[in-house]
Amino acid sequence: MRFFMAVAGLLFLASAAKADIIDEARLGAAIHALDFNGGEPAVEDGVNISGEILFASPGVFRYILSPRPFVHGSLNTVGDTSFYGAGLAWEQHFLGDRFMGEIDFGIARHDGVLEPPPLGDPRRDAVIADHALLGSRYLFRVAVAGGVKLGERWRAQVFYEHLSNGQILGDGPHNQGLDNLGVRLGYRFGE
């Protein structure tokens, strides 16, 4: 059954790309939960395998600099926090369109730990030692990327993404957030 669902999904993506709905597909890998703040070492680790589908920018988005809507997913290879979500991506080309920069903003839903077990629970110390305490099931996701065209359709990017509830989405005291750094390869259908 999963095989048929996968084939149906691929056929849908192919037809959407042909109809100029899908603009780009990306696949990448990122080092998970880096510590850029100079605090305690990151409690989660592993590599995240990430995928994104970016859609053609709707005409009405020209008033906000024509971002492309996207959906994304990121699977942690060692069982730590994985996530998926959606947002908008603003891309700017420079130096003869060979290079590009990008800023993304969106919302992600994750499967990580929100809060530690209560005081007195024997699992509490292990959970705090091994998991980021994210405080909310939904997080803001902000990403920046820089890349280069590899040909007519292919491009490569280095990206950094930060996920956090911003003390806005969560009602608890925890907001450790996640920082991931990676590379991705994209295939552009349109242009």
Explain how this protein is built:
The protein has 191 residues and is mainly β. The chain has one domain (22-188): Porin (Beta Barrel), CATH 2.40.160.20. The protein has two helices and eight strands. The protein has helices at 2-18, 124-130; strands at 22-31, 47-55, 68-76, 83-94, 99-110, 138-149, 154-164, 178-188. It has an eight-stranded antiparallel barrel. A hairpin with a 4-residue loop joins strand 4 (83-94) and strand 5 (99-110). The longest helix has 17 residues, at 2-18. The chain is elongated. The model has no long low-confidence stretch (mean pLDDT 89).
- CATH class wording: Mainly Beta
Using the coordinates shown, work out and report the CATH topology.
Answer: Porin
Uncertain runs: none
CATH architecture: Beta Barrel
> What does the main sheet amount to?
8 strands, antiparallel, barrel
- SS content category: mainly beta
Report the radius of gyration as a whole number of Å: 18 Å
The fraction of residues assigned to DSSP E strands is: over 45%
The helix tally amounts to 2
Average per-residue pLDDT, rounded, comes to: 89
How many separate structural domains? Answer: 1
Terminal Cα span: 36 Å
Number-wise, the strands total 8
Helix content: 10-25%
Shape: elongated
Strand order of the largest sheet: 1-2-3-4-5-6-7-8
Provide the succession of SSEs: HEEEEEHEEE
List the helices and strands and how they pair.
Blueprint: H1 2-18, E1 22-31, E2 47-55, E3 68-76, E4 83-94, E5 99-110, H2 124-130, E6 138-149, E7 154-164, E8 178-188
Antiparallel strand pairs: 1-2, 1-8, 2-3, 3-4, 4-5, 5-6, 6-7, 7-8
